[in-house]
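Thread title: Can someone regenerate the structure for this chain?

I was given the following input by a collaborator and told the matching structure tokens would be attached. They weren't. Posting the sequence so someone can regenerate them.
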Amino acid sequence: MADRMDLRGRVAVVTGAAGGIGRALAVSLARRGCGLALADRDGAGLEGTVALIGNRARATTHHLDVTDRAAVAAFPTEVRAAHGRCDVLVNNAGVALGGTFEQVAEEDFEWLFEVNFWGVVRMTRAFLPLLRESDDARLVNLSSIYGIIAPPGQAAYSASKFAVRGFSQALRHELAGTRVGVTVVHPGGVATSIASSARVPKGASAEEVARRKAEAARLLTLPPERAGEIIADGIERRLPRVLVGNDAKMVALIERLVPVSYWGLVAKLSGRKA
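Best answer:
Regenerated them for you:
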């Protein structure tokens, strides 16, 4: 197997491809000659992604809710019919939920996990047989920098992203020696709409919600297009872990140096409350 994965002529499935990192990554993969099966609940957004791809690569759109078990189970057959293969699966679809553990209702916690974690598990289970048919395949799971650190007010989101990280690491070990590699991605502050569109806990005040959104706007600065290029390059290089952004790299280093007391230092460097 070559040192770098040649994406020309291969096919990638990307969930959450209607905007943000998913859209940017789809465009980056298309630039490398990779065909695409783009999945999302937002049909208009998917068409916008296809317009950006243009004639760089063949792209099909698929309406998919990753919490729909039957739809996910049937999706590989749809992709095989449209493209004949799947060499890369990118589990990017995700949602956000702010609030402390005591503020977040159990049903909201479960809703978040249905998308962020169980969506990844179901998509992986559905597509692994198709990936195994490839002579060179890659499973790419989007975690977060909050899958490495766990800030206050992010109990649910961090739990889901830590779960994705652990799931991906175990799979990497289980698939060692096969033709399916595993990459887990930890984006830092990427300028997407995930924070502004986050579900708000019922107990949060309007002032608290406004403060959190303003803080997110200040911290989410990396253009999605740059994030897409970083991730696509990581796929080509077969990296087991991709840290997206200098902030992600810095925070991951701090966590390694002081794994228990990192939050005070991270908060100080980022201008947040400890």
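The chain has a mean pLDDT of 93.
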